[in-house]
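Shapes recur. One chain:

:::
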Amino acid sequence: MNFVHCIRPSRSLASALLLLAPFALSAQTPAGRPAADDVIQLEEFNVSDSTASGYRATNSITATGIGTKISEIPIPISVVTGELIRDVSADTLSDALKYVPGLGTSPRNESTFIVRGFSGLISYRNGQYRRQLFTTYNVERVEVAKGAAGIFFGTVRPGGVINYITARPKFDRTFTDAKVTAGDDSYYKFELTHNQPLSKNLAVLANVAVLDAGGDQQFEFLRETYGNVALMWKPRPNQSLTFEVEGINRSRFYLSSYGSRAITNSRYLFNTAVPAANQTTTTAATHMRNWLNSQGFSANPTAANFVPTFDMFAPVYGPKDPLGRTISLTTDARQTQKSRTIDLGYLVKITDSLVWQTDLNQAYDNTTGLQPSTGDTNPYNDGSLRFNFEHFINIRDSWNADSKLNWRFDALGGKHTWQLGYEFQKVNFLRPGYLDAQNRYNNSPMGAFIYNFRAGVSAPVSTTAGMTASGQDFNIRRTSYDENTSYFFAGQSRFLQDRLHLVYGTRYNEFSNTTHFSKPVTNTGLTPGVLSTYDEGRADPGWTPQGAVLFKIFPEVSIFANASQAVEPNFAIDADGNASEPIESSSTDFGIKTELFGGRLVSTLTYYDLERGNLAFRDSTREASTGKSPYFVYGNTESSKGFEGEINWSPNDQYQLIFAINHFSEAKVTKSNDVTRIGAPLNYNPDTSYTLWNRYEFRNGPLKGMTVGAGLRHSDAARLSGDPLNVIIMPSFTTVDFMISHRFTVAKRVYRAQLNIKNLTDKLYRDGTDGYFADLRRISLSVGTRF
């Protein structure tokens, strides 16, 4: 493996930052202190529902690290408020984010988000990285900052970041909220929230929730439990200490057990001219590709050689279930997830100009699964399947420590807020696996193969029995240790009587990675073919600058531009021990923001140009010729360009409308050492997609207390895969959702009942990056009250 050594900035910088806080406690107010109306306030570091009106949020914290008016931030920002989350009855962030322009979700993988064409784990909770279980319990709002976000999130994809913000204790009232929801397919949910000021300086917020649901697919179930306790203590007027602990448990039937994601070629499927395959030696994908090659169908990758086939099980299932979405391969596939999070935050206002902030976070994520191996569920030409089983365990422990000094001052005719910060993250990732007779580590024990399985005809099989038959079990532990250290400077400045707004700064990121095995293995990247108990790597460090400007042409109309860079550690190592350089991204935005009619009509229109370079693609040709893997093709660049628009309109206090649209003018591979990949489209990026949601509240007359809402979501057809030899097109779709709620009083207590119908027309369609089917029509009724 190649090692990249670098000179690190001295860690004494971090120590100096930590020492600044007690030193500054005794400091005098600087000469450039801000005017009285610009004195820095602790409330600016905690945006809440008080800064939102219905579906319109006025402030954001994600893009600037401090609460700032969205209309004055030269960065495109979308905010999903708590009211919108409630009205659309969103259980997960992916449900809530469907109304954000340029953002794609997956109906079967809540951790997969695509922002402006680039996917990845790009989600944060209160500014701290979050890996899984993106539920909406206790979520007050979700903010999406577009672009590479180089200052505060330097190690992200160029599309942007998602940051959801949880509710905090309130000092001005005591309340208890209770809500029950019931729906079709045995859906039941209970939520309870209690807020209690314990004194004038101490308040607590506690949440519990339980979800139990079935589904319309065979053996489907979902069970969740949630608990959260948050404390806020203000020992002095200039200090605030927050403590929060959260736990989520989830158990569900493993959705990869449904064969509906399997896709094949219509020239191949049910073609009697195709010779029968030996399923014990050849996968369906290889058999299909070899036969198509023999017929000359792959000579020109741009030709429509691979015609998509989505109804491959139609002859079996018939018209009621033409796509086989409900038929399971197994009886007991399951996934269990647990997440625990502890947060401690401290704010101290040192002077009218200086605020110190420290945030500590510890997170534990555990995912275990027992499933069919999803890599081999494509059908053979006779419609049969071959698959085996996989048992896996992923355990992730992370520790985060962030500190920053915030300084507000007046100088050079402008008003400025500067932030100097240090962030440290350590992650231990445990992946138990199976050590075979050749001392090779496999990250999952595998079960026995099932051959000639015919979905809908053959009886579903047991994954537990399949694992027992193989004799494989966990017998080795692999632990990866990752560290990410960052230093950043961020500035905001206002000039020309607040008409000119600047955001600028830079971030230094450095990474390290070490992997240990509990037993010697032969397939490490460090010493391939030689017994070793460890692997080690270091990605190049990187600077990620960002600069943005907004100018108010009129008080209600502004133009803005934003340019930023991002870097990602790239630990890809090939079979010969060669390592890749870091992934580098850049983004540029140009746009216009409006805030008309006293803020009742708010809009943003943005043109974006993104690039993500130095990617490593798998070299399947070399892997096949050498019999070794992995090999990569380096030096690849992906690009996306397009327009996105967002409108939030409230002509009066009774009606609200939000509309979002995104159009890609380009989303493809622009550079590659493999010429066949140049021009290949990025995975799942419809040319045009748009959403609309609106609601009307009756405040007078016989319908007083009733609210009606409805929305639609449209997506053009999109490529499911960027593979130039696998042209799979997902059809376009348009879906409609509906909501009606009513406030009523019983025994002097006010209740709110809400009926939601998702996918009103019961449309069967595929959605998201994995090509899974989305849910059919879902009906739910909730009733809630406040004590």
User: Anything to note?
Assistant: The radius of gyration is 27 Å. The first strand starts at residue 52 and ends at 53. The CA atoms of residues 384 and 452 lie 5 Å apart.
